[in-house]
Amino acid sequence: MQYVQSKIRDFSLTQEELENFHQKGYLGPFTLYEPEEMKFLWEQERINLLDRSKAVYQDEDAVSGATNISNYDRHLDVDFFAEHICRPEIVNRVSSILGPDVLCWRSEFFPKYPGDEGTDWHQADTFANASGSPQIVWPKGSEDFGGTITVWTAFTEATIDNGCLQFIPSTHRTMFYDEEKGMHYDPEMLNSIDKGGTKRGFFGYDYRQLKVDPDWSPDEAKSVSMVLRPGQFIIFWSTLMHASHPHRGKTKEMRLGFVSRYVPTSVKIYPDTEVVTEYGGSIGLEKYGAVLVSGENKFTHNRIVEHTTRGKPFNKVVDFLF
Which end of the chain has fewer CB atoms at under 10 Å, N or C? Predict the structure, then answer.
């Protein structure tokens, strides 16, 4: 159960970078692809995404509507994304934070079109906020830990005008939201909620329903905007307070981010869950599996898939474990 990583350049974080990450909750941007390279790659790969014949989620509800859930885990059937989540530029840095044994448990796309609202301020610890059930659970004894490491890669320009990410630094160690409360999904809320003069929503949910203190509001005066060039990525804890600007429509081009999420192998993924229902869709997990991207897996509590790209083994990983 050993992942064999190529002996290329080591992109591990320096001690200074690691301390900076733990203090702020995020780090970057880092360049993975040059802008013209990213533009070429996306023009090519967006065509491959249209073929869902090998996608792990074929549920009609998941793929029929414009719900984000239909965008999950295309790294499990499209070669480019399979390679992307394992790039040493990403994995070396993530394993510097999480330790040597690391799984990629989800990937997803975040498009923002002209006129789209900003994503509301939020945090994610167990990812139970929308589905109602914890999707990741850290082992006992890790009460001070939680969430996932998110790697957000810009596939297009990400600017303030077209909806780049926003962070409130150093908010990742306190949860201001209670995910166990759950939220009510209402597609009518899309592009309709005004918060402090800015349209902000959460894909058909209102994140205010999860506030621990109903009278509390994020201090946006402390926020920073993550402007990224195509091909750059940012690393952050999912428990960090984060949001995005609205797409102001000054350009007709969408803003697109591709997210890969990582946890140590000790974390339980989708425990006691067979179907995930959120964002107005459902997906069955029969073909789902996490991908070992670094180190080895000494546990049997997660489904692990053998990862192949371009017809050749890419990860040395065991078969499904149930």
Answer: C
Which domains are delineated in the chain?
Answer: 15-313 (2.60.120.620)
The crossing angle, in degrees rounded to 10, of helices 88-98 and 15-24 is 70
pTM here is 0.91
DSSP class per residue in 135-198 = SEEPPTT-TT--S-EEEEEESS-B-TTTT-EEE-TT-TTS--B-GGG-----GGGTTT-EETTE
| Alpha carbons 193 and 205: distance in angstroms, whole number | 10
Using CB atoms within 10 A of its CB, is residue 69 exposed (0-12), middle (13-18) or buried (19+)? Answer: buried
Parallel/antiparallel/unpaired status of strands 232-237 and 26-31: antiparallel
CA distance 34 to 319: 35
Identify the helix (H) or strand (E) that includes residue 294: strand 291-294
CA dist 224 to 113, 148, 256, Å? 22, 21, 19
Q: Is the pLDDT of residue 18 over 90?
A: yes
> Cβ distance 265 to 297 under 8 Å?
yes
Percentage of the chain beyond pLDDT 90 is: 71
pLDDT band at 4 (very low <50, low <70, confident <90, very high): very low
Going by the DSSP 8-state scheme, the letter that residue 211 receives in this structure is: B
